[in-house]
Design brief:
The complex is a heterodimer. Chain A is of the alpha/beta class. Chain A folds into 3 domains: about 80 residues; about 170 residues, no CATH class; about 170 residues, Rossmann fold. Chain A has a 6-stranded parallel beta sheet with strand order 3-2-1-4-5-6. In chain A, α16 links the parallel β4 and β5. In chain A, α11 crosses α17. The longest helix of chain A is centred in the first third of the chain and has 28 residues. Chain A is globular. The termini of chain A are far apart. Chain B is mostly helical. Chain B has a domain of about 60 residues. In chain B, about 80% of the residues lie in helices and about 0% in strands. Chain B is built from 4 helices and no strands. In chain B, α2 runs antiparallel to α4 and α3 runs antiparallel to α4. The termini of chain B are far apart. Classes of the chains: A alpha/beta, B mainly alpha. At the A-B interface, α1, α2, α3, α4 and α8 of A face α1, α2, α3 and α4 of B.
Amino acid sequence: MTPFATQHIIEVCYLVATALFILSLKWLSAPSTARRGVWAGELGMVLAIGGTLLHHGIIEYQWILIALVLGTIIGVPLGLVQMTAVPQRTALSHACGALCVTLVGTAEFYLRAPNVPPFMMAVLCLEVILGSLTITGSLMASGKLQEILPQRPITYRGQNFVNLSLLGIAIVLAVFLVLNPGHKALFPLIVFIPLVFGVMMIIPIGGADMPTVISLLNSYAGLSAAAMGFVLDSKLLIIAGALDGSSGFILSVIMSKAMNRSFSNVLFGAFGQVQVSTATAKEERTVRSATAEEASTILAAANTVVIVPGYGMAVAQAQHKVRELFDALTKRGVDVKFGIHPVAGRMPGHMNVLLAEADIPYDRLLDMDSINPDFPQTDVALIIGANDVTNPAARTDQASPIYGMPILDVDKARTVMVIKRSMNPGFAGIANPLYYLDKTLMLFGDAKGFVGDIVRELTGGGH
Amino acid sequence: MTFDLINSLYVFMLAGFIGFEVIRRVSPLLHTPLMSLTNALDAIAVVGAIVIAGEAKTTFSTVLGAIAIVAAMSNVVGGFLITDRMLRMFKATKTKKS
């Protein structure tokens, strides 16, 4: 075949792959068509890779095949991780994607420099800067989520100044390189400084901010891939990168709205300010606690129950016990629903995946806007491992650091039950007045154990 | 050159709008699979890496290209695999016929 004809075949493969990618995301919009979306994506990927292998410029196949096989061998275990490990796996895959983009960008630079037109150099620098900071940022996030690194946010004076200066230096160097493409020695710095910035950016970030950060890193990874598409003049890459970039962007906007953060706050990665512990006067307020037996009696007598899961449920791996509770109550004719806050857990949609894993039908999982009008008619709101997303101070107390954050209105239910280890305030160190309400019962204990006890009372007791 | 650039910018802009409109419709229920799927699709960067590694212009570019293929390919395989596993778990309430 002539190179010309081959080029046409490749272009058609890419065109079809692009269409399949868009359909893939379109079909993902509803659970009923979502799996078709995955198949469309897979087919598109096979076409794109197959077409690329026909590329006339390729003279050496040996390394490509070894690398493809090696990547597959690494990819399979990454695709088979436990559902509770999905947030750290996702962060890790952002790092892998960014690594690919950065390495290709680096190779392109040394192949082309100094004959790089200014715009191309600017895009190349953008690709490498976004790529590098995403590599280390994602690795840090993954390490924090896997609890290899300390989860507590580490802050120091002038942190934002240091971070923004690092980024600023990288950008200034990039601009200089655009104007003087001969200074090849600057390029390693343009890779290295954002690598450091990526680490520094994640240091002040704690667990509760992870959903926003993961989405943001997702967006960066997509944008760097789109930049790579500009450099290689590949429409397929530009489109795939733009889709990924906008997906990450939309998710970070949703997450930041759900935490009542301004958008610039998200863009500049200036997280962690909320941790300034508000020295609230420790009033001696009484809480009412209850045993599993008492809780099960109330639950059994209820008509409607809304369960509000949070990260604590994931940590305790309590989702299967929660399913047993769901079954036991449903069998007794109780209407059980789940109220899920957008930032519950450590990544967007985290709770839904865990509950779906435990075989809870997805039509029982309602998002914040759908469930909130139901709370006034709800007999029992059962909170498992969630804290700040249920804090009524966000609605009423203007002095509270989370004032204005949209919350689940659990306090409007007739009875509130909170499964919690102790009275220690949550991650953000913010007191939750919900616990002191007359209608609130505190169920002290481990989420998995306590839910298990309630289930035993409901099923075994018989009285 | 500049003509290509303008074309590419149009493509980027249109793809951004399509992405925004399509992804806005994804149910919050599926936000985790959405992220893992877009990650897998984003690993299409592997095509750039394949060309770099295959052209074998310098040892340096070949090595970087090969490592890039490994990184991207692990995302392709792992990303699709885990997305499909997650989506298989989402089941609706079984309607009892009695």
